[in-house]
Design a protein that fits this description.
By secondary structure, this protein is an alpha+beta fold. It folds into 2 domains: 58 residues, no CATH class; 47 residues. It contains 2 helices and 5 strands. The longest helix is centred in the C-terminal third of the chain and has 23 residues. InterPro entries: Motility-assoc_prot_GldC.
Length: 108
């Protein structure tokens, strides 16, 4: 069996707030790439729930966080469509993402 590794390193300040986040992905050729935010979800099949880690640095601008969340919402629709084949629900998710963009003032 082949293994690969994706890692995320987080430097915290004295109050345990992320100051720097870097990530590595062996197979993707990514090494110590800086980022201002990350959201990780894993599925716990015993508890039947998603477990999440949401981190962002204190330098992450609010307008970029809004764009980050908007793009995640769009990608969730694509992921849902690929996983289920339910195009109608995926389109509804995309519409919801566009509503979010308008309500959060990303788009007019």
């Amino acid at each position: 069996m082949r293994k690969t590794q994706i890692t995320i390193d987080v430097e915290l300040d004295e109050n345990h707030i992320p100051e720097n986040i870097t990530w590595n992905a062996q197979d993707g050729g990514v090494e110590k790439e800086e980022t201002k935010a990350t959201m990780i979800s894993v599925w716990d099949d015993k508890a039947m729930e998603a477990l999440r880690i949401d981190l962002w640095t204190k330098e992450m601008p609010v307008d970029q966080m809004k764009m980050f969340i908007h793009q995640i919402l769009i990608s969730l629709g694509s992921t849902y469509q690929r996983a289920t084949g339910e195009e109608d629900v995926a389109q509804w998710m995309e519409q919801m993402a566009e509503e979010f963009a308008i309500k959060s003032a990303i788009k007019m």
